[in-house]
Each structure stands twice: as structure tokens, then as C-alpha cells.
Specification:
This protein is α+β, with helices and mostly antiparallel strands. It has four helices and five strands, in the order E-H-E-H-E-H-E-E-H. The longest helix is centred in the N-terminal third of the chain and has 10 residues. The chain is globular. The protein starts with 13 loop residues before the first strand and ends in a 5-residue tail after the last helix.
Length: 202
């Protein structure tokens, strides 16, 4: 009796990517419930959409929401952050090396970035302060690109005729919220405030 044939494949490098402002409702539904995302197949349609809409992107596992769905429901959120793990390849590198990385989900390009595990030096995506991340959910939001009172992912350039959204553009004034300096943008790795908050990281 012969042994079954096995195929050995080279283990590929993986990358974690955070995608902002992904709709919580599934295709064809106007609203959403926590139960919509229960079960093994709950994310299958979303995963297929990501792979089909972004040639070269291959998910290594099912996507996951960043945060608790019950809390999002109580705050009446319609979008949330999504974490995906993909096989690292040239297409992924090309996408992530752009000045403003984006990935298409649910028919629209969404801002994305490399995922970093939470640590004391991380910026809160809501208020752009250092050190509390998720704990700052009740703080007043500050836009990274304009310092107005809204989330950075909700940014729209105020200049008439400019259609840039969710990211900076040629009209953006370079300014860092944590260190109050106009030499770099908020979140820059060379930011003195981030360096100071995380000695030995750099």
C-alpha cells in the first residue's frame, strides 16, 4: 500500500495590515448586527472581496475587526478598523511603499498601514496623543492632516476644487500634534516625542 503524496510548499513571509473605515454591514444589508459576524463563514465574502478587488493580495487567514463589536454597536458605528494577514509579495510591498497606502474594500479605496502591536509609544488614532491608544476613545478627535475636530480617516481637503479625502495632499500644512513642531507630520518615526516615549526603540 503506497503512501499518499504530499506537496511541500515554501513558507512565505506574512504581513499584518490595518485597514481603516471598513463598513460593518455586509453586502446587501443597510444595517448590521453583531451576530452577522459570527461563525466560520461570516468573513468569507469580505475576504473574497478583498482578494478579487486587489490583484496580488492573498489572505493568509480570515480578517478580524479591531475592537469589540458590542462596543461598536453601542456607539452606533457604521465602519471600523479591519486587520488582515497577507502573504508578503512584490504586489504587497509596492502597495505599502506608496506615500499613501490604500486597499480596495467594498468598492472603495481605504487607507491602510502596516499593523504595529500596541505599545506605549503608539499614537492614538483618535486624539493623536501618545501612550493610551484604545483608552482614548472618549477624547475629542483631531485630524492628522488639518488639526480640525474629526478623525484623520474622515479628512477632506477644504480647498475648493481639491478632491483628496482621508489623506494629505499638496495643501496639507506639515505639523506634528504630539511635539507641536512643523518640521514633520504627526506619526513620523523621527518625531522627538515618539522617540522620547520609547527609549531604546530606535
Amino acid at each position: 500500500m503506497g503512501l499518499p503524496k504530499f506537496r511541500f510548499e515554501r513558507d512565505t513571509e506574512k504581513a499584518k495590515i490595518f485597514i481603516g473605515s471598513v463598513p460593518l454591514n455586509q453586502a446587501g444589508k443597510s444595517g448590521w448586527e453583531c451576530a452577522d459576524w459570527d461563525g466560520e463563514n461570516a468573513f468569507r465574502r469580505l475576504a473574497n472581496d478583498i482578494e478579487l478587488s486587489n490583484p496580488g493580495i492573498k489572505l493568509a487567514s480570515k480578517p478580524s475587526w479591531v475592537g469589540k463589536l458590542a462596543g461598536m454597536k453601542s456607539r452606533k458605528q457604521s465602519t471600523a478598523g479591519l486587520l488582515i494577514i497577507v502573504d508578503m509579495n512584490e504586489d504587497v510591498k509596492k502597495m505599502m511603499n506608496k506615500e499613501y497606502p490604500a486597499i480596495k474594500v467594498a468598492g472603495k479605496s481605504r487607507s491602510c498601514r502596516a499593523w504595529k502591536e500596541e505599545n506605549p509609544s503608539m499614537l492614538c488614532a483618535r486624539c493623536l496623543k501618545i501612550g493610551h491608544v484604545g483608552a482614548g476613545r472618549n477624547n475629542e478627535p483631531v485630524g492628522k492632516w488639518c488639526r480640525q475636530k474629526h478623525l484623520s480617516l474622515e479628512h477632506r481637503c477644504p480647498v475648493l476644487g481639491c478632491e483628496e479625502r482621508h489623506q494629505g495632499c499638496k495643501h496639507t500644512r506639515i505639523w506634528c500634534v504630539p511635539c507641536q513642531n512643523n518640521g514633520h507630520i504627526t506619526g513620523d518615526d523621527d518625531c522627538p516625542a515618539i522617540r522620547k516615549s520609547s527609549p531604546g526603540k530606535f
